[in-house]
């Protein structure tokens, strides 16, 4: 989940303006139907902050630009820049040693190769990552594991029931 929320905060993500914090950040933008509410919730290793912009009643909608990324995120960014000024920030810690990170080709879902234009870094439960094919780009960060066949749907469901995923 953290990896997904980190991608939101990179251009061209809906929270891409959060990259101006110049620290590792993850977050989520949001806008309700009919533009009555806009919000951004974001965090670093040391601070979680949420900003909501809207009206207490559903009588007056905001304008068409009233999205979390346009209205709430700039307020969040201003606050976070002041709150974290001078506070050193490291990268987010991996959630478990059972997690491996693999560069993936977003078009194919397979490991990225030298021809992949924009690899996407994805987290996998160790042993369930896509198999390493000839010419694959090395995994990062973390240690690469031996390639294994990903489980089929029945195996994955069984693992989930046993608490393995």
Describe this structure in words.
- The protein has 165 residues and is an alpha+beta fold.
- It has two domains: 2-83; 99-161, no CATH class.
- The chain is built from three helices and five strands; from the N terminus they run αβββαββα.
- It has helices spanning 2-8, 68-83, 153-161, and strands spanning 26-31, 37-43, 48-54, 99-105, 119-125.
- Strands 1-2-3 form a three-stranded antiparallel sheet. The chain has a two-stranded antiparallel sheet with strand order 4-5.
- The longest helix is centred in the middle third of the chain and has 16 residues, at 68-83.
- The radius of gyration is 19 Å and the shape is globular.
Structural class by helix and strand composition? alpha+beta
Order of SSEs: HEEEHEEH
pLDDT average, as an integer?
84
- Oligomerization state: single chain
Proportion of residues in extended strands: 15-25%
Strand order of the largest sheet: 1-2-3
Q: List low-confidence stretches.
A: 135-139, 141-147
What does the largest sheet look like? 3 strands, antiparallel
Which key terms come to mind for this protein?
165 residues; alpha+beta; 2 domains; three-stranded antiparallel beta sheet; two-stranded antiparallel ribbon; globular
Short structural description:
With 165 residues, the protein is of the alpha+beta class. The chain has 3 helices and 5 strands. Strand 2 and strand 3 form a beta hairpin.
């Amino acid at each position: 989940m953290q990896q997904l929320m980190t991608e939101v905060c990179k251009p061209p993500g809906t929270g891409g303006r959060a990259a101006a914090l110049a620290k590792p950040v993850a977050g989520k933008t949001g806008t309700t139907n009919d533009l009555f509410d806009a919000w951004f919730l974001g965090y670093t290793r040391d601070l979680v902050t949420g900003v909501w912009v809207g009206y207490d009643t559903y009588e007056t909608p905001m304008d068409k630009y009233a999205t979390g990324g346009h209205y709430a995120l700039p307020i969040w960014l201003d606050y976070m820049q002041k709150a974290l000024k001078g506070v050193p920030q490291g990268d987010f810690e991996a959630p478990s040693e059972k997690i491996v990170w693999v560069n993936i080709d977003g078009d194919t879902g397979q490991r990225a190769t030298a021809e992949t234009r924009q690899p996407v870094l994805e987290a996998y439960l160790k042993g369930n990552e896509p198999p390493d094919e000839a010419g694959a780009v090395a995994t990062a960060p973390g240690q690469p594991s031996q390639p294994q066949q990903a489980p089929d749907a029945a195996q994955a469901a069984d693992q989930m029931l046993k608490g393995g995923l």
